[in-house]
Amino acid sequence: MPTLNLSTNVPVDSVVSSDILKDASKSVARIIGKPESYVMVLLKGGVPMLFGGSEEPAAYGEVVSIGGLGPGVNGKLSAAIADILESKQSVDKSRFYIKFYDVEGSYFGFRGSTF
């Protein structure tokens, strides 16, 4: 159930959006070590955003997962998502924050219940 929620102030067209979603989904699954069939990725482009007093390209992300997160994994995932955003959206790695949430199954709903 890893979920990656990305927001950027850069507009996203459907072709770029599809590339980002697919690349991010594969990266999350591979790095966290969970099947891609459980991964969800959300992408919001054109979000009003100010970073360091500037409206230059920037992004913010959040990852929620039941297990699989930790210092080593988080660093690898942060680097992978930053690479995707830099190559697909020209968001410099210094203009991207990502927050990680490792949650218990009872705090995540699925199929009308919790894990």
TrEMBL record:
GO CC field: extracellular space
UniProt main location, coarse: secreted
EC assignment: 5.3.2.1, 5.3.3.12
Catalytic activity: 3-phenylpyruvate = enol-phenylpyruvate; L-dopachrome = 5,6-dihydroxyindole-2-carboxylate
GO molecular function: cytokine activity; dopachrome isomerase activity; phenylpyruvate tautomerase activity
Pfam families found in the cross-reference section: MIF
Top-level taxon of origin: Eukaryota
Keywords tagged on the record: Cytokine, Isomerase, Secreted
InterPro entries, per the entry: Macrophage_inhib_fac, Tautomerase/MIF_sf
Location within or outside the cell: Secreted
PANTHER family documented for this protein: D-DOPACHROME DECARBOXYLASE (PTHR11954), MACROPHAGE MIGRATION INHIBITORY FACTOR (PTHR11954:SF6)
Family: Belongs to the MIF family.
Descriptive protein name: L-dopachrome isomerase
Organism: Picea sitchensis (Sitka spruce)
Classification lineage: Eukaryota, Viridiplantae, Streptophyta, Embryophyta, Tracheophyta
